[in-house]
Amino acid sequence: MNRFIWAMVVAAVVLAGLLGVAGCLQVQAPKEINVGTGRGHEPIDTSRVPPTQSHEEARQKLAEAYDRISYLEGKVRGLEKDKRELKSDLEECKDKMKRQRKNDD
Questions:
Q1: HSE, side-chain direction, 13 A CA sphere, residue 19
Q2: What gap in Å lies between CA 17 and CA 7, rounded to an integer?
Q3: How far apart are CA 93 and CA 87, in angstroms?
Q4: How far is residue 85's CA from residue 68's CA, in Å, rounded to a whole number?
Q5: Are 35 and 44 within 8 A, CB to CB?
Q6: Which of 22, 23, 45 is nearest to 33 (CA)?
Q7: Are 63 and 52 in contact (CB under 8 A)?
Q8: Which of 20, 40, 76, 77 could form a disulfide with 25 if both were Cys (CB 3.0 to 4.6 A apart)?
Q9: pLDDT tens, residue by residue, 3-12
């Protein structure tokens, strides 16, 4: 009896593997993932997670996402630098305008 059960488990695993290789089995992300602990859980929208056919394809998509994140973080750093420079220029212009008004009085 134990051999029969063992054979059925092995057959099920082999069948699942064959279906996965053939592309008949597809794993999708859950609709919602809760991150954090305690009372406040932050829901994460997984609706834009692309479906993948294999683990390798999922790794490739993840690598592309991380590359995109790195690129966007660089853009944010550049924009924050521009913001600081513009804020400094604005303060300089305000000071210049105040000095000009004092001189005009």
A1: 10
A2: 15
A3: 10
A4: 26
A5: yes
A6: 45
A7: no
A8: 20
A9: 777 777 777 7
* Distance, CA of 83 to chain centre: 25
Provide the residue count of the chain: 105
Per-residue pLDDT for 72 more than 90?
Answer: yes
Maximum pairwise Cα distance, the chain: 105
HEC sequence for the chain: CHHHHHHHHHHHHHHHHHHHHHCCCCECCCCEEEECCCCCCEEEECCCCCCECCHHHHHHHHHHHHHHHHHHHHHHHHHHHHHHHHHHHHHHHHHHHHHHHHHHC
For the stretch 56-69, pLDDT in tens is: 999 999 999 999 99
| Alpha carbons 57 and 63: distance in angstroms, whole number | 10
Q: What is the CA radius of gyration of the chain?
A: 29
